[in-house]
Structure formats: C-alpha cells, structure tokens
Amino acid sequence: MRAFAVVSALIASTLAYTITSPSDTQDWNNDGAQSLSWQRVDTDPATFAVVLFNRSTQSSTLIASNVDGKTGSLKIEPPSGGWPHGDDFRIRLVRDPQSLTAILAESQDFDIDDVPLASRTATTSSSPTPTSPTQGGNASQTPGAASSLTVQTGLVALMSMLGFALV
C-alpha cells in the first residue's frame, strides 16, 4: 500500500507544468521579445509568474507575473536594461511574485545570445508585434514539446511498472 502511494506521488509530479521552450537546443537572444512555451495539466495553478534565473551568478529577475497558464505560450518583453547575454540561464515558473522559491517548473539551461546592433535593425522590420507578458499568445507545437511529452510518458510507464512490481 505504501508503495502505491509513493508511485502515485511520483506519477503526479511528472504531470505538471513543463517548459518546452527555451531549452538547451532553443536559445534566446537579446533582440526584443522572446518566446516561452509550456505544457500543463488541469491540476496546475491557473496563473504563475516567470523568473529568469542565472545559474552562474545565482541571480533571479522577475520578468512576467499573473501569466494565464492555459495559453501555453507567451512573448516576454525584455526587463528594464534589456536582456543580459551569456550562458547558464533558466526560466522558472513560480507560484507568484511573492513566492519566487515556490518553483512550479524549471527549463533546461539555455543561452541568451548577443545580437549585434546591425543585425537587430535588419530583423526588426519583419518581426511580428509581440503580446504583453500578461496576455500570452497562442499555444504552438515546438520541437522540444514532443520530446518532453515522450520523456513524461516514459516516466509514467516506468513508475507504473515499478508500482506493480512492488505490489
């Protein structure tokens, strides 16, 4: 019986908010609004805040609050002073701006690339108008989303088999 409870808790923890972009293969750059996408289940909180965390400096910057979790994606405007650039960044979805340590999900490490000023002006004219951080955008399928779902499905299957074996 105790094994069933442990397996159930592990399965429930794998079916929560999952950040699909940015990722270790989908970096951001310091040129304007950047895309964030995620998956959720009905038991996840309806809203959350977004924190940009730098693992190297252990610094956190609140970059969006009161985000509607049902939208599945969002264009985030740069913080005041612009996007930093470098590596070892992560996005954290947290319960609210007052609870920055109540992490609901955390992305893989990603880089924020420095785009030269000349390149920024050339790409700005063709960029779509970003949405505000609290409005969100339309959910879209990203290459990382399919692999995240596959990993979660595999974990659920593994935990189920482990539960049956322990019973």
UniProtKB/TrEMBL annotation:
Keyword Signal: yes
A matching Pfam family: Kre9_KNH
Alphabetical list of InterPro entries matching this protein: GPI-anchor_Adhesion_Reg (IPR052479), Kre9/Knh1-like_N (IPR018466)
Comp. bias regions, Low complexity: 123-134
Residues in Yeast cell wall synthesis Kre9/Knh1-like N-terminal domain copies: 21-112
Signal peptide: 1-16
Organism in which the protein naturally occurs: Panaeolus cyanescens
Keywords: Signal
Superkingdom to which the source organism belongs: Eukaryota
Protein name, per record: Yeast cell wall synthesis Kre9/Knh1-like N-terminal domain-containing protein
Segments forming a coiled coil: none
Region (Disordered): 120-145
Compositionally biased residues, Polar residues: 135-145
